[in-house]
Structures are given as structure tokens and as C-alpha cells.
Write a structure and sequence with these properties.
Elements lengths: L2 H5 L6 E3 L10 H6 L3 E3 L6 H16 L2 H9 L5 H4 L10 E5 L4 H11 L3 E5 L5 H7 L2 E2 L2 H7 L2 E4 L13 H6 L5 E4 L8 H10 L4 E4 L19 E3 L8 H19 L13
Parallel strand pairs: 1-2, 3-4, 3-6, 4-5, 6-7, 7-8, 8-9
Helix pairs in contact: 3-6
Length: about 260
Amino acid sequence: ITARVLDSLNQCRVIARYGTGMDTIDIPAAVARGIVCCNVPGFCLSEVADHTMALLLACARGIVRLNDSVRDGEWDAVGVSKTTERLTGQTIGFIGLVALTPAVATRARAFDLQPIAFSPRAPDSAFESSGIRRVELDELLETSDFVSVHTPLRPETHHLINARALDLMKPTAYLINTARGGLVDNQALLSALESGSIAAAALDVMDPEPMPADSPLHQAPNLIITPHAGFFSLTAMEILRRETAAEVARVLSGQEPRSSVSTQL
């Protein structure tokens, strides 16, 4: 929803995002036209946290690789799993301390992973309440065994995971992205996977979506891709439908929405 689209919406009073991410809406342009923008944060928090851990475990335990080897007629646990290491004591680094991050951290701690995070906008109190240690981005990339991306997509975070960031990661580290595809430079990721400068990656989001049929990432080694499915459960969809409509109804009846999105998002 661009400024041009907004100019054609002469009677629009509210835009309710059917979901969480607001990167598809020109929010400053909407606010300048007096249009209320809102979303439904948290409707799928549990689902995305679960999906993040599912991707992490699939990478760490080589689930896809093991499955493929059996289907190819092999039965070689040790040979296929030769790079697998135990999770206990490893570090998970979160890029972005958002509402989802503590939920993933709680799950990660159950596997004895140690959480750290980089989030320049989050106050110290958010780190203290979540029990996650604050670090700078370079330290996170250099020390994490799992880098999990959760920051919103903004102009300044576009391709935040680029060639430099990937070069800083351990060669044994895994990248997980369940946030937005535009946060990762696909070409840089492909190069990192082909060269072995990182161990593997797992993506639930892509830029663009759907993933193009001719994308070279289809053939990338050690890459797991799911079709932006982390948000989905029957319960989450029921909440999303109900709350999106409720936000519109609140605004049109003269009330404030529960989740108003400002230009400072």
C-alpha cells in the first residue's frame, strides 16, 4: 500500500494489517493523510517461536540430511551426522529483541542454549526482564552457534545479514530467519553456503515471495526452506481474523485501536 494507492482511497479511515509486519504499508504517508494504521501483533507468537526452534533443531540434528540419505537407500547415522554436536552449552544469538524473542529464548533454554541479543532500539529493562545478555552485533555474529533473526524490516535493516555479517559467523554456525526475507542478502547467503563459511541456514521467509522457480537457492547446499509457514495454526488464524476485524470496528466506532502503529515503528 503505497502513497499512490493511498491517494486513491478518498474515504479510508483505517488500514488494519492482516498480520504483524508493516513493511507492505507506507505508514508515514498513511499517517500524513490521517489514516490510522494498526496490526495484530502476537497472534502467532507461539507458532513462530515453535517454528524457529523446529528449524534450529532440524539444522542441529541434521534431520533433512538424514531423511534424504535414508530415502536414497543409505543407513549411515555416523557418516551423515559426522558434523553434529550436542546443543548443551551452545549460544543462540537473537538479532532483534521483540515480543517473540523471549518466547524463543524460553524454548532455547530448555535445550540448555545460552541466549544473547543485539537490539539497538530495545531498552536495558527489556534485556533485564528477559534475562538475555545484551551484546553488539559483531560480537553476536562472532560468538553465536545459532543466529536467529527477528528484527523488523526497515530501510536500515534491509540486507542486515550481508556478506560481511556472514563472514563474521563461525564456520560451524547456523543462520535462522523467521522474520522477513529482505533482512538477508540471498546472493551473499548462497556464496556462504557454497563456500562452507557457515554450516547451514534455515529460512521461513524469502525475498521475493513466493520464491522464484529459477532462484539458485533451490540448489544451495545445507539450506532448509519453508514457505512462510511459521505463523500458521488453526488457533492463530482464528485469532487473526477476529482481531483484524475488531480493530477496524474500534476505529470506525471512534475508539483507539489496541495496536496503533506510528511512524516510529
